[in-house]
Design brief:
By secondary structure, this protein is α+β, with helices and mostly antiparallel strands. Helix content is about 35%, strand content about 20%. The chain is built from 10 helices and 15 strands.
Length: about 375
């Protein structure tokens, strides 16, 4: 996330608790695969699932799964359009029928799609595929009367009829007349079968072409990056928001009982939890602090109460003799420096609790200590 401070670009990173993917992973000039891998690496849940979004980065891969549905349901129950896949231009010799539609690489919105009428044009398109360095698919051209857009957002279904009025053979480009139609059981069955792909699609849509003779052909399926249509776009956005909130609530409420990463839907860190964690860390042994609870002294300072002490505070233990005795053990500079720090800490600790006589005795002992370390002063 780019943040600008005083005209300087500062990069900040964050980990989302949930993601809604409403953009295509790949397009003609875009590729957001690295971001998707980062979300998956961080274990971020999403709608649609990151696994499903990853599988939609190549249209031939999705079409291959649609062909599996057709084999299971039958051509009559799942009328998928015929399609031929070419891994590269070297395999593109000729087509069995014309006209055909070339779909070069992975793109949306009518990009990379060309209508070819003759074999010579087919060879010209093969040279274009060679320059592009990618795969392509070829399917028979259908003289369509209109196309149908069937969408599913959670439990909500809608169907739209789109008829081009600009004369373009691409029904999804140019000016078109849009009308919401009745959701039939046939369309519902198709989109329900498709929504089971890749572990489940919470949001998906089918593109269907209706020929002039009335035959219907399923040409492709879109994931959560589908385009909302008609006057009901605000309603569809509300359905998407409700679906996301429902998925988030499911993950957050089941997190304590499920074996999921602790980083999913973690609660925000508040001031109370922050202070309590800091207090618990400061009371651990070996951190330069004293274990046990503390009670205030009459002078306003706090001193530790160890287990086994009887409730009321006791006067601190005098350590003057210990300090003077330890200072006479060694006269090395490093040892002397440590003893000097110890003497200072003893002085600071006792000076706040002792009265005049104690202070004078402490000063005398300190003078003896410094004399033993540095010589007579």
């Amino acid at each position: 996330m780019a943040v600008f401070r005083n005209g300087t670009r500062v990069a900040r990173s964050f980990r989302p608790d949930f993601a809604l993917v409403r953009q295509n992973l790949r397009d003609a000039a875009e590729d957001h695969k690295n971001l998707l891998l980062g979300l998956k690496f961080g274990g971020v849940p999403s709608v649609n699932s990151l696994h499903a979004v990853y599988n939609f980065q190549d249209k031939p891969w999705v079409f291959a799964h649609l062909m599996q549905l057709q084999r299971r349901l039958g051509k009559e129950n799942f009328p998928l359009i015929e399609q031929t896949f070419y891994p590269n231009y070297k395999e593109m010799l000729s087509s069995t029928r014309f006209p055909v539609v070339f779909k070069i690489g992975h793109a949306h919105g009518g990009l990379g799609k060309v209508k070819v009428d003759t074999n010579s044009d087919f060879q010209d398109m093969a040279s274009v595929v060679a320059v592009a360095g990618t795969y392509c698919t070829v399917e028979p051209y259908v003289d369509s009367k209109y196309d149908i857009h069937v969408q599913k957002i959670g439990p909500n279904y809608k169907a739209f009829m789109r008829k081009s009025i600009s004369g373009n053979w691409k029904t999804n480009t140019g000016s078109a007349m849009l009308e919401q139609i009745q959701m039939t059981d046939r369309y519902r069955m198709w989109v329900d079968e498709v929504s089971e792909l890749f572990g489940g699609l919470d949001i998906c849509a089918l593109e269907i072409i209706v020929a002039k003779d009335g035959r219907e052909f399923i040409i492709e399926v879109n994931d959560s990056a589908l385009s909302l249509m008609g006057d009901s776009q605000e309603e569809d956005r509300r359905h998407i928001a409700e679906l996301v909130a429902h998925r988030m609530q499911q993950l957050c409420t089941t997190l304590p009982t499920r074996n999921t990463p602790q980083t999913q839907c973690r609660p925000p860190m508040t001031k109370t939890t922050s202070r309590s964690s800091v207090t618990s860390m400061s009371g651990q042994p070996g951190q330069g602090t004293t274990t046990g609870s503390t009670i205030p002294s009459p002078t306003g300072d706090e001193r530790p109460v160890f287990p086994g002490e009887a409730g009321s505070p006791q006067p601190p233990v005098r350590r003057d003799s210990q300090a003077s005795q330890s200072s006479s053990v060694s006269s090395a500079p490093s040892v002397g420096r440590r003893q000097e720090d110890t003497s200072r800490s003893v002085f600071g600790r006792q000076g706040s609790t002792q009265n005049g006589e104690d202070t004078e005795d402490t000063m005398k002992n300190l003078r003896k200590t410094f004399a033993g370390i540095f010589g007579d002063m």
